[in-house]
Amino acid sequence: NITQNISILDNVAPTADPLPALGPFACYSNIPAANISAVTGETDNCGGTVTVTFISDGPNPGCAGTVVRTYRLTDACGNSANITQNISILDNVAPTADPMPALGPFACYANIPAANILDVTGEADNCGGVVTVAFVSDGLNPGCSGTVVRTYSLTDACGNTANITQNIAVNDNVAPTANPLPALGPFACYANIPAANILDVTGEADNCGGVVTVAFVSDGPNPGCAGTVVRTYRLTDACGNSANITQNISILD
What we know:
Elements: E1 22-25, E2 50-57, E3 64-75, E4 80-90, E5 103-106, E6 132-138, E7 145-155, E8 161-171, E9 184-187, E10 213-219, E11 226-236, E12 242-252
Parallel strand pairs: 1-4, 5-8, 9-12
Antiparallel strand pairs: 2-3, 3-4, 6-7, 7-8, 10-11, 11-12
């Protein structure tokens, strides 16, 4: 007999199918848990059993980037190889906040309270980051009646933004005013009363600073030998709010 020695040395690492990329996910915390069953097609060159273990996930890339997930393949002879899977992260979700309550009504645009970012509550980011609130603008003066839309912006750490609005009602229902009119007289006869003159009305003021129109309304009836005639003027502002102002004129024949 003659013999021949044939050496066996299995130093070939096992293989598996490439792992498909996952994502994008908005947040690192949204990545699905590792699962060794996701690794398929495990093959050993000598047909032995291949064991799969999870090794690690790469660090959080922040707003956008790739997390590398690593599994290890090990055959019965201790040969091993790593297989990786790319998981993409992309935070493109805008932050949110609680709805803002309506304010008002206020008589004038000038009466609207100043904007205050502390009025915005319940700020939330999908990935749990800090949300910055800023005042953007107030809508235009609606005039006598209407709604002013106040806008704040919400911005997360990844630069995603959203606006939140607040409705502020304006309704001018306040009548204008003027200085009290001094009494006139006495005059001997009703016919002697001086003619009405809207320039006698002074100190006209509107709560919102608009123009006040003065008009003569009427004189009261002739009281005869003695009495008082009530002269009436009307004050009207630009929003149609009106008030009367009176002047007493005495008669004594």
